[in-house]
Amino acid sequence: MNDSSPAPVEPVVLDVWCELQCPDCRSALDDVRALRARYGDRLDVRLRHFPLEKHKHAFAAAQAAEEAVEQGQGWPYVQAVLGRVEELDRRGEELLVEVARELGLDAEEFDTALIDGRHILIVDADQAEGKAIGVTGTPTYVIGGERLDGGKSQEGLRGRIEEIADRLLAERA
């Protein structure tokens, strides 16, 4: 069999260090959406958890996001919760379960996951890795070994990510 089609290019990985009670992460969603639209399968956008101590519901929200991933709705869940940052601040875990229900997920399983802590190790591991590579705030992006801090300003970050992604994809072609 002689298939002359080129081998698929391995996607570039973009780690997005995020926390779901962070207004700056909500703003960053527009950039993430645009990057996903531009690159499709050529960019593997990975949500990494970095709950900040100043936000009391961020750790629970990270665990809930992992439950959403397990139920096949990770990004839709993250986007829905980030769209309601202020409400999460007021309502906490009640909102996390409500968003799951609104997305048609198994809300009881979310409730149970938040009680039994089955996703704590994933969140802890992300946070530890983030600290080890110098993440101090959210959102922070890591692509091609370069860390871009969006916590201070989103200005120009998408363009910088695109430059790096384009270079890495060209090298792999």
Q: What does this molecule look like?
A:
This protein has 173 residues and is α+β, with helices and mostly antiparallel strands. The chain has helices at residues 23-39, 58-70, 74-82, 85-91, 93-102, 107-116, 120-132, 157-172; strands at residues 12-18, 43-49, 140-143, 146-149. It has a four-stranded mixed sheet, with helices on both faces. Strand 1, helix 1 and strand 2 form a beta-alpha-beta unit. Helix 2 packs parallel to helix 5. The model has no long low-confidence stretch (mean pLDDT 92).
Q: What is the percentage of strand-forming residues?
A: 5-15%
Return the structural class: alpha+beta
- Order of strands, main sheet, comes to 2-1-3-4
Mean pLDDT: 92
- How far the N terminus sits from the C terminus, by CA atoms, comes to 23 Å
Report the principal-axis shape: globular
Query: Biggest sheet, in brief?
Result: 4 strands, mixed
Helix run count? 8
Helix content: 40-55%
Rounded to the nearest angstrom, the radius of gyration is: 17 Å
* Record field, number of beta strands: 4
Helix-strand pattern: EHEHHHHHHEEH
Please sum up the structure shown.
This protein has 173 residues and is α+β, with helices and mostly antiparallel strands. The protein has helices at 23-39, 58-70, 74-82, 85-91, 93-102, 107-116, 120-132, 157-172, and strands at 12-18, 43-49, 140-143, 146-149. Helix 2 runs parallel beside helix 5 (93-102) and helix 2 (58-70) packs across helix 6 (107-116).
Topology (elements, then pairings):
Layout: E1 12-18, H1 23-39, E2 43-49, H2 58-70, H3 74-82, H4 85-91, H5 93-102, H6 107-116, H7 120-132, E3 140-143, E4 146-149, H8 157-172
Parallel strand pairs: 1-2
Antiparallel strand pairs: 1-3, 3-4
